[in-house]
Design brief:
Layout (H helix, E strand, L loop, with lengths): L3 E3 L9 E7 L7 H12 L3 E6 L13 E4 L5 E4 L4 E8 L2 E9 L5 H14 L4 E10 L9 E4 L3 H7 L12 H12 L3 E9 L8 H15 L9 H16 L2 H15 L8 H16 L1
Parallel strand pairs: 2-7, 2-8, 8-10
Antiparallel strand pairs: 1-3, 3-6, 4-5, 6-7, 9-10
Helix pairs in contact: 1-5, 2-4, 3-8, 5-6, 5-8
């Protein structure tokens, strides 16, 4: 019996895939929240799923008991559902806001790559969030990279530079590289002194950078008020600790002295379109 179950086979026109997983590289839940917001905003409908049974240690990630709308008691398992949305800023999307499994990562990554290949996905974008040295008082930086030299050059992305322990996302990028499916990694730095969810500022930063890279409406501006409220709450907490306040001021000086420039949305959209046309010709 297949571990990848297809409930539907949507007709998609050269879609883009956006993926995030709960786990070590989803600090404050920022990445999975971003993908879930995309799915809700654009009415994405589930069409495929990966059976959790072979991939999870349920003593570490326990299922939950819940009651549905008819008051029927049911077991809720960790979900990895693929959903599709059409006509999002002129593009089709495949979305996965899932849960990083405990077991058989190569096989799990193969299933994700198989969905991408079957749907004709042209680019896979993984979203992640890591705890880092970033001040909460500034827009949180997003590191964007791609191992595809042509795509990286077109969009002004860096080649991957991270070495060290990885998660499912690292395994997935390796699988996509070997399958010839271009991939982009977007990773936001969450202030290490406020690592708990929610973090609307981190989610907004990821969606804003996704909008720049893909030209897709992510609704980042809808989080402006939530981000301001979050910042005010952290401001109040920091003000009560002079040592933390001094540390944040030091981080601010470091960020403000950076001269990193990000291309405009129009420039990136034009470059992505040119790159996609080149692959299709």
């Amino acid at each position: 019996m297949s571990e990848l179950h297809w409930d539907d086979d949507p007709e998609l026109d050269a879609p883009l895939m956006v993926v995030a997983f709960e786990g070590l590289f989803d600090a404050a839940g920022a990445a999975t929240t971003a993908v879930a917001r995309l799915a809700e905003r654009h009415g994405a409908e589930a069409f495929a799923r990966i059976d959790p049974d072979p991939f999870f240690d349920f003593t570490q990630r326990r299922p939950e008991i819940a009651f549905d709308e008819a008051a029927v008691r049911t077991v809720v398992w960790p979900e990895n559902h693929f959903a599709a949305a059409s006509g999002v800023s002129g593009r089709d999307l495949v979305l996965l806001a899932g849960v990083e499994p405990h077991l058989r990562w190569p096989t799990f990554a193969e299933h994700v790559a198989r969905v991408a290949y079957h749907c004709g996905v042209q680019v896979v974008v993984t979203l992640g969030a890591t705890v880092g040295v970033a001040p909460h008082t500034r827009p949180l930086g997003v590191v964007a990279s791609s191992s595809d030299p042509d795509l990286a050059n077109r969009l002004g992305l860096a080649p991957p530079s991270y070495e060290g322990p990885t998660g499912l996302v690292g395994v997935l990028h390796d699988q996509l590289d070997r399958a010839g499916i271009p991939a982009v990694s977007l990773r936001v730095a969450v202030p290490h002194y406020v690592p708990s969810p929610p973090n609307p500022e981190a989610t907004r930063s990821l969606l804003a950078r996704l909008e720049l890279v893909l030209g897709v409406d992510g609704g980042a501006e809808e989080l402006d008020d939530d981000a301001r409220d979050w910042r005010r709450q952290v401001d109040a907490a920091v003000a009560e600790d002079p040592e933390i306040a001094d540390y944040v001021a030091e981080l601010e000086r470091s960020v403000d002295s950076s001269d990193e420039l990000v291309p405009s949305a129009e420039e990136l959209a034009e470059e992505l379109e040119a790159w996609l046309r080149g692959r299709q010709s």
